[in-house]
Amino acid sequence: MRSMTARPGTGLDAMIRTWRDRLPPSAAGLPAAPGRRTAGLRREELADLAGVSVDYIVRLEQGRATTPSASVVAALARALHLTTAERDHLYRLAHLVPPAHGAVSDHLPPGVQRVLARLGDVAVAVFAADWQLIRWNQGWAALLGDPSASPPRLRNFARDRFPVDESPARLALWPVAEADRDATDAAVVSDLRRATGRFPEDRRLAALIRELKAGNARFAELWATGVVAAHREDHKTIDHPSVGPVTVDCDTLTDGDGELKIVIMTAAPGSEDETKLRLTAIAGPPVTTYN
């Protein structure tokens, strides 16, 4: 049923259509098909990017679905490349309270999405301030394994570094060696402490830290040092099942007030590792399932 309070052209249904029509496929990282008549995204493309069914997009745009969940709204906002103001408007149209500005955000601003789309096959992923994985590309999945089969809650780099049970790793599906593992552990913990200063009221961040302090002795030990810093760079060797060991530089960039972490993995130009990295991108990620 359509909302009786929204004026024609301003409700949830109309705004989703408007934002979908204005976003060209190239901006969303999709190939431009010859002879394409639609300037913006098709419904099928938006559904795939947001992780919902095409039928649900149809119902939203026809006004037959008017109360999407917060997780669906967040996914639509990312898929449509909405600004923060537009994202908040979408939440209100769905009768939801927008995310608090003092909370860790999973929203990807349009500028970050443009960068991701233009990096091509470079292995790149974006994490929230609490190291929750938000987005990754095919290059990342091909190099480290596709994390999409893992439950979203478990796609967290800090949880991978400091497991609280015997569950398998969820972000790197094959062995990864680091130049200085202790330094990386300390960097992740100190980065989380830094996030608590930026987002002191965030419940998800607080719950993560409580869980890791109680369930992982190594995390608790490092947390007790009180060090505050940010994760910036590392060197890793991935034991890839198809091409063998691949050594990469792992650089972390931070975006604006949201403290998003853009993690980029590259190999030295002209090296054997660069060739292997390209081969993983060509082959694509192996099919992997979790028990």
From TrEMBL:
<dbReference type="GO" id="GO:0003677">
    <property type="term" value="F:DNA binding"/>
</dbReference>
<dbReference type="Pfam" id="PF13560">
    <property type="entry name" value="HTH_31"/>
</dbReference>
<dbReference type="InterPro" id="IPR001387">
    <property type="entry name" value="Cro/C1-type_HTH"/>
</dbReference>
<feature type="domain" description="HTH cro/C1-type">
    <location>
        <begin position="39"/>
        <end position="87"/>
    </location>
</feature>
<dbReference type="Pfam" id="PF17765">
    <property type="entry name" value="MLTR_LBD"/>
</dbReference>
<dbReference type="InterPro" id="IPR010982">
    <property type="entry name" value="Lambda_DNA-bd_dom_sf"/>
</dbReference>
<dbReference type="InterPro" id="IPR041413">
    <property type="entry name" value="MLTR_LBD"/>
</dbReference>
<protein>
    <submittedName>
        <fullName>Transcriptional regulator</fullName>
    </submittedName>
</protein>
